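Lab notebook, entry 262. We have the chain sequence and a SMILES string for NAP, and the next step in the workflow is to get a structural model of the bound complex before anyone spends time on docking refinements. Request logged below.

Task: model protein plus NAP, output structure tokens.
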Amino acid sequence: MPMVIDIAAAWDGLLQWRQEGSLPEHLSGPPMTAAAEQLLSLYRPLLEGPSRQAVAQMAQSLDGYIATAVGDSCFVTGEEDRTHLHRLRALCDAVVVGAGTAVTDDPRLTVRHVPGPSPARVVIDPHARVPPEAGVFTDGRAPTLWLVGPGNVPDTPTGVERIELPVDGNDGFEPARILDALADRGLGRVLVEGGGITVSRFITAGVLSRLYLTVAPLVIGSGRAGSTCRPARAFATHCDPPVRRFTLGQDTLFELDLGEDG
Ligand SMILES: NC(=O)c1ccc[n+]([C@@H]2O[C@H](COP(=O)([O-])OP(=O)(O)OC[C@H]3O[C@@H](n4cnc5c(N)ncnc54)[C@H](OP(=O)(O)O)[C@@H]3O)[C@@H](O)[C@H]2O)c1
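Result returned:
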């Protein structure tokens, strides 16, 4: 290991921490570059927290949109925030998206911007409307779990695990039930990646330990809203959460500590 820990060595150490469950010795000893210190500071709470916890991320404009009206979100925030997103994926066991994102973006949800393992991919799709040719169902790059409602569901794509969950009125699946189903399969640390409806349901349900919200210096004007969580629960509980700020290039990352274990 180098005498001064640089960002690459710090990231290796964080991956080792994720794997072994304790802070590697080389991260507590030698001096670090400023970038390595920021990296360690940003992800430390995630790794120090319980092995079962759910976090969420959103990248939004100054006026609160995560995508344009036609669903184009490539890219609201810059390169450094995308690297941050890939780091979050690499530190989690599972990454969750809603059907809207799976249909609009056809995302891969793998780790490509940094070294590290890709998480299991989870698609919340109560009406089974994500097409069978979607990349997460066909590319074989990481395991995929497909969460569907009870009823007339088409064939499960080969290699995909289908999990049928009960629907709770208009709110769909209870987020806590989703996290239980994932924990039962050894997927304890969960990143809820988007979109806005999906993240908002997890915030409203009060099951997130933290929210990573990156704001880009950009006005979109109209489009897909980021947070649409219900005031009664979300603001009564989280009106003034502890927050940390990080600079990611032109963007500002707010890390809100919501204080819940998944
Ligand atoms: N900037 C970012 O950080 C970011 C990240 C990801 C995605 N995006 C963008 O966000 C847009 C899509 O976001 P969105 O808010 O429209 O949709 P979304 O959150 O991706 O998907 C919402 C849909 O997922 C299903 N769903 C989510 N949670 C559920 C639950 N608890 N129970 C049952 N069903 C649940 C429902 O499907 P049904 O409608 O079938 O009931 C719901 O309408 C895309 O344009 C994408 O590009 C942006």
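Notes for the group: The CA atoms of residues 94 and 120 lie 5 Å apart. Worth checking against the assay data. The chain has two domains: 1-48, 49-257.
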